[in-house]
Design a protein that fits this description.
Chain lengths: 307, 610
């Protein structure tokens, strides 16, 4: 176990370096923060721009800037935002819980919905409940998330006026972003649960479980589901990464004050410190979730535990 | 007692089962009484397994429908018709009054729950026990099926147990609620013979202890002879014959039963013969059995010539477990210091059980696996020092036939293409027309027709597919064919015809065979010499007659006594069969003891006892 954790830690360090290096390098190709900051403020001389760059530390060579960023990483000091001068760590501390709340709740909602529906589809393979569930999931898959988000806003916020159109203020504001993310996740998860379930239901031990006289629910939810867990957990783990990617768009539409919105604004303003910090936090999150997935394998499957 | 004699426990009457529009079981009737064993015998597609699943009403879940008939069962709540009972009623009967053991012990237990948990589950469900009481009872049940350390086993997972142990756990689980009827569907087919013998003994003993009725479903006439009181023979979904076991074996009436019994290789049937013998084949011809072919003495081995293949002190090991820093901690000692020669026209059989290393030897010769040490000489040349061209020639002259003919043919290529492939690869014939002709000739040689060349593997039956694999092996004019359990997946009647084909080809082409098998009866019919493997070492090697008539090593004797013989009148002695086959996995540094061998008769070598 110790060896496994050390290996994972080294992997994490490597991933963070590669990801942040790529981001730091790429964003510097896209524009000058000094120009962005002075946009629209009339008479800006070349000297002003030089002074701004010096103040932001952008006159130093790229590698020095990057090493400074890495140094800051160890003390959780990401520097100050180019826009407004707030401590980056304060911005992250505010945005991270909002994003995590949204991501985990939509993931959990989708798991809770997709498991019974996926199992129902698998057990009624080829019959109408299966067809219906498959069609619905296909429809769900076909929605682009931003379109779905806009349609929800149009219906529930503008026409019916049931829910607030944007922002984070209480439980109501939380429903639409979570549903948007959840519907798309659920659509893929149902198909995954159905496929793994079909495979597991063919196993001999399922026949044995039925031959014992167990009820269908015990057979399905105890004997079969636990054996589906490995592929499902693997996929849910991977999905978490994709989820964080998709959240930028959804957060933007609902003006949700999370990491996605933060990153979006940072890209627009060429706010290097904020962007680098957000990307670092996101990659650490994904590494962390994958680690949890690996640990979960051992918990659900004794064959992996003893290896 | 008179009551149980008059009323059968289960009476199946005119039962027909349909899946979609195909009728898999047709107008089947039979009955079982308490304390009796009924064997339902048949080959693949006979409907025997569907019958057992129908009694359990598990066929429903697979889309089965009962078109006609009934199955009356004397349950504790009175007589009920199993075919019309609700699933709710059936759940009270399954596991409680009728229990079932399945074929594959390796996949019958749920891998993610402990043994104790899985047995306790049945007791808590049907007997209303608490978890603690159920676990206590589970421990008693595990001891009942002769599993040592029952208390410790409760907390173990299925993957930590061998196949034989898992099947005992299955039996313990099936008998947990003392069912009135036990259905055993090929319960020993996937097990080694010595383990099979142990399991059969346990089932028999527990049956008389608990007074249950047993329905034993099998394709193995040897097992039928050992286990059954009464026999039902099924063929293409119908019952074609039934009667007491002695009667069926002594006077089979239906032509199918006659052919089936004729095809079963019987251990000891070659007593007093120096050579393997090709016997006439009984085939069904318009519902009457007919003999095809004559008797041929298989005197094909040319011991005067130099050996085709020599194996000297071959050692093959695999690293398996590794420590944190990549150091190897455990190895499989698959093959340890094995030596033998194969002469032209000879069949050398490698026999042994799981973990004996017999398949690894075949794979090492074909260079699918690298040897750790030792030498393999082909035509006197060491394989390890061959250059590219010589290796290519080696691949042409040694051919392989595997157990599963379906898995070894490309499903997207016509069989003609598959057979022509080695001819093209080795550049034996270049002209397309000539290749076509050669493929046609090969197909005819193995008993198919040239029209078959354009078909795909799924259009053939298992036996035909194995013929295609043989044709493909012959395509490159090999000197040696390694047949790795090539007959094991086939029904006996097909097995017999492929066996004859092997011998015919040997006579015509002087082929040498390395015949890897666990089936002693088939080995006895087919081979000139036999090497018995145990934990990677040859414990005994000699002519077929020496091994089968005067086995000297205790393991050889064990192996032979474990084989079920298709003769109900033969007395059984299973006293020497105890314990499991040890594992060939060893810690690094813990080297196995290499047996020394003594020649006790010309060519008959036996490992010394340690």
């Amino acid at each position: 176990m110790a060896g496994f954790l050390i290996k994972r830690l080294l992997q994490a360090v490597f991933v963070v370096i590669v990801v942040t290096l790529t981001v730091a390098f790429a964003i510097r190709l896209t524009g000058d923060p000094a120009l962005m900051l002075t946009q629209g403020s009339g008479s800006v001389t070349e000297d002003d721009l030089v002074r701004i760059r010096e103040a932001l530390g952008l006159n130093q060579p790229f590698l020095v800037q990057y090493l400074n960023f890495l140094k800051g990483l160890f003390t959780l000091d990401f520097g100050r935002s180019f826009l407004g001068g707030t401590q980056v760590s304060t911005l992250i501390a505010k945005a991270l819980p909002a994003t995590l709340l949204l991501a985990f709740s939509s993931l959990i909602v989708s798991i809770v919905i997709s498991i019974p529906l996926g199992i129902k589809a698998a057990t009624s393979r080829g019959k109408w409940p299966d067809q219906l569930i498959r069609i619905l999931s296909l429809v769900g898959l076909s929605f682009p998330n931003f379109w779905l988000a806009l349609m929800l806003v149009l219906l529930f916020a503008i026409n019916l006026r049931w829910l607030p159109p944007s922002g984070m203020s209480g439980f109501e504001s939380f429903i639409m972003p979570a549903v948007t993310m959840g519907i798309i996740l659920t659509a893929t998860n149902i198909r995954l649960v159905r496929t793994t379930m079909l495979e597991t239901l063919n196993a001999q031990y399922i026949m044995v479980a039925r031959a014992k006289g167990l009820s269908e629910n015990v057979v399905l939810y105890k004997h079969a589901l636990r054996n589906c867990a490995i592929p499902l957990i693997t996929y849910f783990g991977l999905q978490f990464g994709a989820l964080l990617g998709g959240i930028v768009v959804v957060e933007r539409v609902f003006n949700w004050p999370g990491l996605g919105t933060l990153a979006f604004d940072a890209v627009g303003g060429r706010d290097y410190p904020v962007l680098q910090a957000v990307i670092t936090v996101l990659s650490l999150l994904i590494i962390g979730v994958n680690l949890l997935v690996d640990i979960a394998y051992g918990l659900v499957d004794p064959r992996i535990r003893t290896e | 007692m008179t009551d149980t004699v008059s009323a059968p426990l289960l009476a199946v009457d005119d039962l027909s089962v349909e899946f979609g529009s195909s009728r898999v079981v047709e107008n089947l009737s039979f009955s079982v009484r308490a304390g009796r064993t009924l064997a339902i015998v048949g080959e693949s597609g006979s409907g025997k397994s569907v019958t057992s699943l129908s009694i359990m009403r598990l066929a429903d879940m697979m889309g089965g429908r009962f078109a006609t008939g009934q199955a009356l069962f004397e349950s504790r709540k009175g007589r009920i018709d199993l075919t019309t009972a609700t699933q709710k009623t059936m759940r009270g009967i399954r596991g409680k009054e009728i229990a079932m053991i399945f074929q594959e012990p390796m996949t019958s237990l749920n891998p993610v729950f402990t043994i104790g948990n899985q047995i306790a589950e049945v007791l808590m469900l049907h007997e209303g026990m608490t978890k603690a009481a159920a676990l206590g009872e589970a421990e008693r049940l595990l001891a009942m099926v002769r599993l040592p350390d029952a208390a410790e086993l409760l907390g173990r997972y299925p993957h930590q147990l061998s196949g034989g142990m898992r099947q005992r756990v299955m039996i313990a689980m099936a008998l947990a609620c003392r069912p009135k009827l036990l259905i055993a569907d090929e319960p020993t087919t996937a097990l080694d013979v010595t383990i099979q013998a142990q399991i059969l003994t346990i089932i028999r003993e527990l049956q008389s202890e608990l007074g249950m009725a047993v329905i034993f479903i099998t394709h193995d006439m040897g097992v039928v002879a050992e286990m059954a009181d009464d026999v039902v023979v099924m063929w293409k979904g119908r019952k074609i014959e039934e009667g007491p076991v002695a009667e069926i074996f002594a006077n089979p009436r239906h032509p199918y039963t006659q052919t089936l019994l004729a095809a079963v290789p019987k251990l000891g049937s070659m007593k007093g013969q120096d050579f393997p013998k090709r016997l006439p084949l009984t085939i069904m011809d318009d519902e009457t059995p007919r003999l095809v072919g004559g008797e041929h003495l298989q005197d094909t081995a040319r011991y005067g010539a130099s050996p085709v293949l020599s194996v000297r002190d071959l050692v093959t090991r695999f690293d398996i477990k590794k420590g944190i820093f990549g150091g190897v901690t455990h190895r499989v000692h698959a093959v340890e210091k094995v030596s033998f020669d194969i002469y032209p026209g000879e069949t050398l059989a490698l026999v042994g059980e799981s973990g004996s290393g017999k398949s690894t030897i075949g794979r090492t010769i074909q260079q699918l696996q690298h040897e750790t040490s030792g030498a393999i000489l082909f035509d006197g040349r060491p394989v390890s020092s061959m250059n590219g061209i010589e290796r290519q020639r080696l691949k042409q002259e040694i051919q392989y036939i595997f157990q599963d003919p379906f898995a070894s043919l490309d499903p997207r290529k016509t069989v003609g293409f598959s057979i022509a492939e080695p001819i093209r690869t080795h550049g034996l014939i270049h002209d397309g027309k000539a290749i076509q002709k050669r493929v046609d000739a090969l197909l005819e040689r193995v008993g198919l027709t040239s029209a078959h060349a354009r078909r795909y593997p799924h259009e053939f039956s298992g036996g035909q597919r194995q013929r295609v694999c043989i044709a493909r092996a012959l395509a490159s004019n090999p000197k040696l064919i390694i047949a790795d359990e090539a007959l094991s997946a086939l029904d006996v009647s097909i097995q017999a015809s492929i066996l004859n084909l092997f011998m015919e080809l040997q006579e015509q082409q002087g082929l040498a065979y390395l015949f890897i098998s666990h089936d002693m009866a088939v080995v006895e019919k087919m081979s000139h010499r036999v090497a018995v493997l145990y934990l990677g070492q040859v414990v005994e090697i000699g002519t077929r007659r020496q091994i089968f008539e005067t086995p000297m090593h205790s393991y050889t004797q064990r192996l032979l006594s474990a084989v079920p013989v298709a003769d109900p009148s033969r007395a059984r002695d299973r006293s020497m069969l105890e314990g499991e086959i040890p594992s060939p996995v060893r810690r690094v540094g813990d080297e196995p003891v290499i047996f020394s061998r003594t020649e006790i008769a010309p060519g008959h070598f036996v490992a010394d006892a340690t």
